[in-house]
Amino acid sequence: MMKNMSALLALAAGTLGLGMSEFGMMSVLSGAAADLNVSIPQAGHFVAAYALGVCAGALLLIFIARGRPLKKTLLVLAALMTAGNLLAALSPDYAAMLAMRFVSGLPHGAFFGVGGIIAEKVAPPGRRTAAVSIMIAGMTVANLFGIPLGTAIAHAFSWRAMFALVAAWDLYTFYMVWRMVPEVPPLPDHGLKSQFAFLGRPAPWFLLGAIMLGNGGVFCWYSYINPLLVHVSGFAPSSMTYLMVVAGAGMVVGNLLAGELADRCGAVPVAAAFIAVMAVSLLLIVFAAAVPAASAVLMFVAAGCLFGVSGPEQVLIIDNAEGGELLGASGAQVAFNLGNAVGAWLGGLPIAAGYSYRYAAAPGVLLATAGLFMILHFRRLTKGKKSRCENGFFQRGGENLILPVRPTGWPWFLPACRTKSEARCRR
After folding, report:
1. Looking at 45-49, 90-94, 271-275, 419-423, which range is the least confident one?
2. In 3-state terms, what secondary structure has residue 383?
3. Per-residue pLDDT at 402 exceeds 70
4. Strand order in the sheet with 388-390
5. Would you say the CATH fold of 201-401 matches that of 1-180?
6. Residue boundaries of the structural domains of the chain
7. Out of 1.20.1250.20, 3.10.20.320, 3.40.50.1390, 1.10.260.40, which CATH number does the structure's domain 1-180 have?
8. Using an 8 Å Cβ cutoff, are 194 and 328 in contact?
C-alpha cells in the first residue's frame, strides 16, 4: 500500500465528483431541456458553459492560489464544486442553469492542478506518476460507476436529483480533504510574471499540444460511440449501459497501468507508447467496427489509452513548468477539454458528409498521430535539460535519471525499465 493513500483517495474523490459533473450533463440533457423549456441544441450550451468555466478557472487559479497553502486552496475548490452543483440542481430557468454550469467548471482544472502537485509531494520517492494516476482514477471511476448511477437516479426521479447527488458527494470530498490531506507548504511565489515564464519555451507547448491532440483523437470517435455501437456494430440499445461499463473499465485499467509503468520506464516513453496504441486502435475501429466483439475490445483499448496518457502527461507538465506549476497543471485540463471540443467537431464531419459512423474515428487517427509526433519532439527538446533534485532522485527532462535495464525476454519494441538505486540525491 502506497504511503499517504488516504490523502490520494481524498483527491480521487474530488476528481470523481468532477467527472460526474462534467459528463453527467450529457446523460440528462434531454430531461433538463424539457424541464427548462429549451431546445436540445440550447441545452447543449450547458456542456459548453462548463468547458468555458474550466478554461477561466485555470487562469483564475494563479491569482487566488499563488503563495497560499495548497490544502486551503483545495478546500476552497471543493466548496465551490459543492455550491455550483447544488445551485445547478435548484436552477429555476435556462440563464441560471447556464451560469451555474460555468461556476461548476471553474474549480475543475484548478482542482486537478493543485491536487496533482499535492499528490506528487505526498508520494514516496519514485512513485510520483502512480500517485497522480490514483488521483485521476476518480475520473475513470466516475465513467465506470458514477455516471450510470447518476443517470439511473435522474431517470427514476429528476435530472435535478443527479446534480443534488453530485453536490452531496462534493461535500463529502470537502470533508475528506479536510481530514485526510496533510498540510503542504505553498509553492514559492516569484511574482505573477514568473507564472507565465515557462510558456516562453517551446517544450511545454508541444506537451500541451500532445495532450490536446491525443485526447481529441479519442473524442472524434467517443463522441459518437452510442450510434456507432448500435448502427454499425449491431448492439441492442438496451446493452449500452453494459458497454459503457466496459469503456469505463478500460479507463480505470489504462490509467493505473500507465502510472505504474511510467514510474519504472519513464513518463515520456509510456505516454508515447499509449498514444501510438491509441492511433492504431482508432485505425482498426474504422475497418473492424462492424464486428461486435472487435468493436468492444477496441473500445476498451482506446478508452484505456485516453486516460493512460493522463497521469504521465500531468507529471511532465508540472516538471516542465518551473515557477508556474499551478498554471501548467491546470492548463493540462484546459488542453484536455479543448481536445474534447475539437475531436467532437472533427469526428462529426464525416458523419455530416453522409459517411458511416465508423468514419468518425478516421480524423482521430490523424490527431493521435500528430499528438505522437508532438510528444516525441517534446522529448527531443527536453533531452538535455539540466538535472535537478526531486523526491529523492535526480531529474532530467521531467524523468527520474536512472539506468536502463532490459529484463530477460523483454521485447525490443518496449521501453527498458530502469532501476531506482542509481541516482539518489545527496542532500
Report:
1. 419-423
2. coil
3. no
4. 388-390, 393-396, 399-400
5. yes
6. 1-180, 201-401
7. 1.20.1250.20
8. no
pLDDT digits (tens, 9 = 90+) for 223-279: 788 788 888 888 888 787 788 888 888 988 998 888 888 888 888 999 999 999 999
The DSSP 8-state label assigned to residue 48 in this structure reads H
What b-and-e string marks burial along 131-140, b requiring 16 or more CB atoms within 10 Å of the CB? bbbbbbbbbb
- Rg, Å, the chain Cα set: 21
DSSP character string of 292-331:
HHHHHHHHHHHHHHHHHTHHHHHHHHHHT-TT-HHHHHHH
Cell of 272: 508515447
| Domain covering 201-401, topology | Growth Hormone; Chain: A; (1.20.1250)
Q: Is the pLDDT of residue 156 over 90?
A: no
b/e burial code for range 365-398 (CB count within 10 A of at least 16 → b): bbbbbbbbebbbbbbebbeeeeeeebbebbbbbb
Phi, psi of 389 (to 5 degrees): -85, 130
Q: Is the dihedral of CA 69, 75, 76, 77 positive or negative?
A: positive
Grid coordinates in use for 171? 461535500
State the chain's mean pLDDT as an integer. 81
d(CA 272, CA 346): 23
Which single residue is written with the C-alpha cell 491509441? 278
Going by C-alpha positions, the residue among 144, 27, 75, 58 that lies closest to residue 327 is: 58
pLDDT in tens, 330-382: 788 788 878 877 887 888 888 888 888 899 899 999 999 999 999 999 988 88
In 124-219 the beta strands, taken as DSSP E runs, fall at: none
Give the list of residues 6+ apart from residue 345 with CB closer than 8 angstroms, or none: none
What is the CA 78 to chain-centroid distance, rounded?
Answer: 18
Q: How confident is the model over 120-135, as pLDDT tens digits?
A: 888 777 777 788 888 8
Q: Which three cell numbers stand for residue 315?
A: 507529471
Q: What is the pLDDT of residue 188?
A: 66
Query: What's the distance, CA 280 to chain centroid?
Result: 21
The stretch 17-29 carries a mean pLDDT of 81
Distance CA 301, CA 243 (A): 13
Lowest-confidence pick of 79-93, 302-316, 364-378: 302-316
Sign of CA dihedral 306, 311, 312, 317: positive
